[in-house]
């Protein structure tokens, strides 16, 4: 299995259950890469939607992907605090300098005070019917929403108090290395 290396720039590809591309983030710097975890960072990176529209991310973000959990977490560093956008998704795979996952519509938005809201439940139900999500996938996804909420409440993983500081410092270190090169 390929593993992205620290300091490497990769793309992130989000797909839908039917195999169609959903969204591509052009450049994300790898801060940690193992068989199970990829932590990356991006800032003002180009994002391309499935219909060809493009936009730039607004703020620096630390991204957390796991090969065993059915969610990924984007930590957006804003002036008034860290906001988290959590995608309920398949575990990631990595190949040919691209990290890939299936986006299953359900999202959890977490605010700096650790309150949260579940988003896109209607979209999930529509796509579940349209793309025939198997019952087993439905159960896995709902279990992982509960697991994710547990992480939020326990301040586990990216929600831990020191996570952002550690990985932001690592990102700044790598940015400085690139400037010197």
Automatic annotation (TrEMBL):
Highest taxon listed in the record's lineage: Bacteria
Reaction catalysis annotation: a ribonucleoside 5'-triphosphate + H2O = a ribonucleoside 5'-diphosphate + phosphate + H(+); a ribonucleoside 5'-diphosphate + H2O = a ribonucleoside 5'-phosphate + phosphate + H(+)
Record: residues binding Mg(2+) 2: 105, 107, 120, 123
Residues reported to bind Mg(2+) 1: 87, 103, 107
Leading EC class: hydrolase
Keywords of the record: Hydrolase, Magnesium, Metal-binding
Any Pfam family matching the protein: DUF402
Domain spans labelled DUF402: 18-156
Location of the active site: 23 (proton donor)
Molecular-function annotations in GO: magnesium ion binding; nucleoside diphosphate phosphatase activity; ribonucleoside triphosphate phosphatase activity
Entry keyword GTP-binding: no
EC numbers on record: 3.6.1.15, 3.6.1.6
TM annotation in the entry: none
InterPro entries per UniProt: DUF402 (IPR007295), FomD-like_sf (IPR035930), Ntdp-like (IPR050212), SA1684 (IPR016882)
Cofactor(s) needed: Mg(2+)
Summary of the function given for this chain in its UniProt record: Has nucleoside phosphatase activity towards nucleoside triphosphates and nucleoside diphosphates.
Family: Belongs to the Ntdp family.
Name of this protein: Nucleoside triphosphate/diphosphate phosphatase
Native organism: Paenisporosarcina antarctica
Organism phylogeny: Bacteria, Bacillati, Bacillota, Bacilli, Bacillales
